[in-house]
């Protein structure tokens, strides 16, 4: 009865039980009748089963049109990331996408008609018109296989780090509420010190009004490529690692976020959770250069005339480890969500390495389990051989 009632709700095509109560009553009546009839010896059980199967088949027949897969967008719209994304993946660097739609003009319709594959249904044609302009964001896993990075992090914003999302909301673009690396906010709504700290190299936009173009040009961007109504803006990438000598100890997360929202000078100072003593501003600014950057390993070459704090514009996570000249050092959470480490005066090699302890524990457990299974299998084989070679009961050896 429960199964029939559930199918009546789901297969009836209704989203609320009130709208489908007629089907509920009918299904309940059929179910109760079948249950009562099953208790009578004169009623064959086959008849009861056929009645229930008939009701289920009817409901499944109603559900089938809604359950079938109907592809709304041609596969080509997703398989082709477009020349803009291909260039980002080939040349690397962190980028920002502003994905507002272009105006519906005759030129836009002509460009779309020229790209549309032949033989599409009306539904597919509509899907093409809606998705093809956004194909630079249509395949979000593209950056995993390339050097392209969204501004929300090396992982494309999918790493479950609440602190980094809080940092982004407070320091980068509080108005935009970034989602999956795409926003509708123009360049004037972004916090540029934070974008510089994160090393943003690219901006992907549609056509921009003059005041927004001036914002990009003021921050060193020039148009590097045009594709239909998409513009790819490029500038020399700001350094992803930098030395900082003025720090503020802010243990309270809420206070850190409040300072970020108020416009904390990220390029001049840094916030840490515990006091760092002995730092001094040198006469000559320190130099930090990223010489290797892989998914799980980042190497930074540092030269500084005084003890300072190395800040790396990548998300902090407790599974990261850091070494200075091959010796373990303390990984610091800087500016609420970024990685940092104290570096003494001199020239040093700093290496950040990701070590997933949960993965290592799981790998060890899996290896022990395989060894245990192999041992049990071997022991059973030995026992079976001993049993096969044992003398019969009462016989001589």
Q: Layout of SSEs?
A:
Blueprint: H1 2-11, H2 21-38, H3 45-67, H4 76-79, H5 82-91, E1 93-98, H6 106-115, H7 122-131, E2 148-150, H8 162-172, E3 182-183, H9 192-197, E4 200-205, H10 210-218, E5 222-227, E6 230-234, E7 241-244, E8 247-249, H11 253-261, E9 270-272, E10 287-293, E11 297-304, E12 308-315, E13 320-324, E14 327-329, E15 332-334, E16 338-343, E17 346-354, H12 357-389
How would you describe the overall organization of this protein?
With 397 residues, the protein is an alpha+beta fold. It contains 12 helices and 17 strands. α11 links the parallel β8 and β9 (270-272). α1 runs parallel beside α3 (45-67).
Q: In oligomeric terms, what are we looking at? A: single chain
Helix content: 25-40%
Spans where pLDDT lies below 50 across 5 or more residues: 154-158
Termini separation comes to: 66 Å
Gyration radius (Cα, Å) is 32 Å
Query: What structural category arises from helix and sheet content?
Result: alpha+beta
Task: Give the overall silhouette.
Answer: extended
Mean pLDDT comes to 81
Largest sheet: 6 strands, mixed
Helix count from the secondary structure assignment: 12
Number of E strands: 17
Q: Which percent band covers the strand fraction?
A: 15-25%
Q: What is the string of helix and strand elements?
A: HHHHHEHHEHEHEHEEEEHEEEEEEEEEH
